[in-house]
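ok new one. same drill as before - structure tokens go in, u give me an amino acid for every spot. 102 of them this time. try not to just spam alanines like last time pls lmao
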């Protein structure tokens, strides 16, 4: 079974695990399937807004697609979520990504 099929099977078995949705989003990125990746990132932001790893990767996806306003928003929301969670490392990475856009 390939990696994507394995992740999809795991998600079906554990549909409320945000890590599996994140792993699927990243797998779709690695396969160049940005539409499916975006769909999973959108679900994470909607259903698991405190899963802070999402904001950096989703922001990068939007930034690389030329959607700079969306990327900026994702980075800023991510900074707020990471700060609220006490996750200084992720907040710092998001700040750096935001600064690199300027």
């Amino acid at each position: 079974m390939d990696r994507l099929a394995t992740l999809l099977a795991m998600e079906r078995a554990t549909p409320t695990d945000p890590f599996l949705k994140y792993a699927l989003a990243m797998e779709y990125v690695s396969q160049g399937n940005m539409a499916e990746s975006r769909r999973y990132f959108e679900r994470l932001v909607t259903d698991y807004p405190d899963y802070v790893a999402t904001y950096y990767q989703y922001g990068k996806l939007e930034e690389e697609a030329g959607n700079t306003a969306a990327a900026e928003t994702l980075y800023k929301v991510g900074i707020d979520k990471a700060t609220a969670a006490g996750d200084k490392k992720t907040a710092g990475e998001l700040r750096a990504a935001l600064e690199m856009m300027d």
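The domain at 3-101 is CATH 1.25.40.10 (Serine Threonine Protein Phosphatase 5, Tetratricopeptide repeat). and btw The chain is about 80% helix and 0% strand.
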